[in-house]
Amino acid sequence: MTAKIGYDEVEIGTELPSRGFPLTRATLVRYAGASGDFNPIHWNEKFAKEVGLPDVIAHGMFTMAEAIRVVTDWVGDPGAVIEYGVRFTKPVVVPNDDRGALIEVSAKVAAKLKDNQVRVDLTAMSAGQKVLGMSRAVVRLA
After folding, report:
1. What sign does the CA torsion over 41, 44, 50, 53 have?
2. Distances (CA, A) of 20 to 17, 24, 125
3. pLDDT digits 0-9 by tens, 69-117
């Protein structure tokens, strides 16, 4: 695969299509099985509250992975992502109901770099709170 977006097609400030990523307790259980991360804060409400959390929370790496999907969907090639990093600022609380939680992600091109690369800054929110800080990806475009 190669990037579908050309370097000359974007400018600083170009906004990527925003997306919402719903998740439920079932999502967390499936992710725990796939990742091998069975920490009870991600599935056991009683334990999560005993350690001071408001409820069960999503895995940080799951939240991070969902957020970068905005970039990989836009560019058309996950292999075009050269660097990606975030700071975890707030947990994504996942209530035990039919709705669960929603991670809302927006992104924009923040800088044009050399070698057809751009820096994309992402904003990830859940329940009105920013859940990822300093969320940035460097992507090589066509």
Report:
1. positive
2. 10, 13, 9
3. 999 999 999 999 999 999 999 999 999 998 999 999 999 999 999 999 9
